[in-house]
Amino acid sequence: MLNNSIRKIIKPISLLGFVGISTLLVIISLNSTVNEKTQSYIISSADYSLLKETVLALNVEPSHELAIINAVAVDLTQHQLSQLQKSIDVNVTQNHKVELSGGKAWGKRKWQPKSVVNDLIDATSVHATRNFGDGVTIGFLDTGLDQLQGTSTGLGLSTDLYGRDKFWGTYDAINNAISNYSNEESGHGTHVASIAGNADYDVYGKVYGVAPNASLVGIKAFDAQGKATYADVIRGIDWALQIKDQINLRVLNMSFSGPARSYYWDDPLNQAVMKAWQAGIVVVASAGNSGPDPMTIGVPGNVPYIITVGAMTDNYTDSDESDDILATFSAAGPTVEGFVKPEIVAPGGHLSGLMAFDTQIVQEHPEFHDGGRYFEMSGTSQAAGVVSGVVALMLTQDPTLTPDEVKCRLMDSAHAAFDNNGELAYSVFQQGSGMINAADALTSTASSCANQALDIAQDLEENEHFFGPANINDDGNFYVEGLGDEYVWRLDDSNLDGDTIIWRMNYAENALDWRNTASTDTIIWRMNVETDTIIWRMNLESDTIIWRMSVADNTTNINVNNWVEQQ
Q1: C-beta atoms surrounding 474 within 10 Å
Q2: Which of these three, 449, 464, 498, is where a domain ends?
């Protein structure tokens, strides 16, 4: 059964046409490119050394050397790009822009908010065992990280609950430099990091952060205007792999999401994410804020190996679990390759985190800042921060856990949402395994329940690629092959308005077989060679175009801070 769970695409490795540098110098006419407009590309090749030599022979310097994916980022004219493609076997992707939102305004003071996340996910009972995430470093690939202190003297992001320094500094992937000082002008990165690791206490004596003693490192790929490129993000991931053993970087939080432009395995950012997972780093990504419609999971959340997180909200009643619902903005699966996403959901509505009063987001939305250090924000970005904190707690308890084992136990221990009739309140494409539960995740002994039918090494080496078990029936509803009708997502019957919800353990026996099982002959994919369009075959009579494989316009953005209204 396990071997049939994922459909493979066999893809042989192409041989490189090796061309000597001396020959290149003869065939390339530099004079013809002087007045042509250049564009930034990410170019990869199986032979990284030859790629760099060939690019230099074009009389251009790469802006980024991205060894993690055997690639360089370089500005080329169309003529230079054409000559390069004739000379060496390469994969070419536009260096897509990455952008934040922002604005101008100033705010007013509110009362310091209380901490609720740890009670919602049962991390409070984990803290009672004196597990606060010690010894684990979480990296935040975001807008930077500010060493803010909260209201408790000396506590916050720079020191842990015992007053020990826990801030490693920030790597600036934009300028390829390291800073030991605060390096944040947007606010987004600091807010997400504080949800995971803030050591400050609220007025009731409850700690804010899920893993308040975890060490923190910022990886800044977004500038003051909230813009970045694929190349900067990939360089940040590359740096994380280089430094991971020195600072015990075990978790990498990616609270951003953008539209899928290709299969997951062809996207250079996703390739770098897969390398991080393969190297032993647990990658936690936000599902994105483009829900509630199906097939809205973005990059890098569409990578099947990693942990993709959706958002739920307590409806502003933290003591009443019955009205806790899935956030309407939370993106849903399946992915275009047929994988069930997100894997889990976590609190992502109106979460309070540290953010300086003069940052970009506060200027845009001053009404949610307390006038001091705390800001209230909603999104799957915040939900990802919650999960990153729980992963740190898990790795503190058992440092030997692999990324696949962490993912397995998180899914095994999650609490699915049921309505008052005992039926699933949301489909697996909306809630995955359910809401995260920290205490149950740490006591779970589950194994071999995540990524078992996948082979990341073969995927990265271009030998095999994979499709998931999701399908669509004649009525246009999504389902997972091998499961019963109760697991069909009937799109005209989505429960997002708040009937009584019970988040409990667990799905019925064998109901989570979507993690590893599916029939391989029910998902029909084909390539339209003439239009270069990838088609999801709904039935024998009708085809629906999902997305195009052609390179997207360079103005298409990934949003780190896709603002959503508070929920």
Answers
A1: 10
A2: 449
Burial class (CB in 10 A: 0-12, 13-18, 19+), 119: middle
Q: Which residue has the tokens 């109901």?
A: 511
- We report the CATH number of the domain holding residue 111 as 3.40.50.200
pLDDT score, position 370: 66
Q: Kindly state whether residue 21 falls inside one of the protein's structural domains.
A: yes
Q: Under a CB-based contact definition with an 8 Å cutoff, are residues 429 and 489 in contact?
A: yes
Q: Which residues are catalytic?
A: 142, 188, 381
Residue type, 328: T
**Of 247, 272, 284, 22, nearest in space to 137 by CA:** 247
- 24, 158: one domain: no
User: Are 152 and 20 members of one domain?
Assistant: no
User: Of how many residues is the chain composed?
Assistant: 567
CA distances from 141 to 231, 232, 267, 321, 487 (A): 13, 10, 18, 32, 35
473 located within any domain: no
pLDDT tens digits for 517-554?
332 222 222 222 222 222 232 222 222 222 222 233 33
Determine the residue type at 503.
W
Q: What pLDDT is recorded for position 155?
A: 85
Q: How far apart are CA 150 and CA 148, in angstroms?
A: 7
**Whose CA is closest to 515, among 524, 507, 526, 525?**
507
CA triplet 486, 496, 366: central angle to 5 degrees?
150
Question: Which strands form 64-66's sheet, in the order they lie side by side?
Answer: 64-66, 71-76, 39-44, 91-94
Query: Who contacts 194 (Cβ-Cβ below 8 Å, separation ≥6)?
Result: 148, 156, 157, 208, 209, 353, 354, 355, 385
Instruction: Find the Cα–Cα–Cα–Cα dihedral 379, 382, 387, 393, rounded to 10°.
Output: -170
Look up tokens 């071999």; give the residue: 448
Q: What phi-psi label fits residue 227: left (phi over 0), alpha (psi between -120 and 50 degrees) or beta?
A: beta
* Strand 167-172 with 215-220, pairing: parallel
166, 267: one domain: yes
Q: Mean pLDDT lowest for which of 14-28, 290-304, 362-376?
A: 14-28
CA–CA gap between residue 78 and residue 72 (Å, rounded): 17
Contact 158, 231 (CB under 8 A): no
Burial class (CB in 10 A: 0-12, 13-18, 19+), 510: exposed
3-class SS at 329?
coil
Domain-ending residue, one of 64, 95, 126:
95
Nearest alpha-carbon partner for 392 in 123, 9, 100: 123
CA distance 119 to 124: 6
Q: What's the pLDDT score for residue 483?
A: 77
Q: What is the mean pLDDT of residues 466-483?
A: 86
Q: What is the DSSP string of 182-242?
A: ---SSSHHHHHHHHHH---B-TTS-B--SSTTSEEEEEE-S-TTSEEEHHHHHHHHHHHHH
Residue 66 sits at φ, ψ, to 5 deg, of: -110, 70
Strands 167-172 and 177-179, sheet pairing: antiparallel
* pLDDT greater at residue 485 or residue 455: 455
Range of the domain at 15: 10-95
Domain with 42 in it: what CATH number? 3.30.70
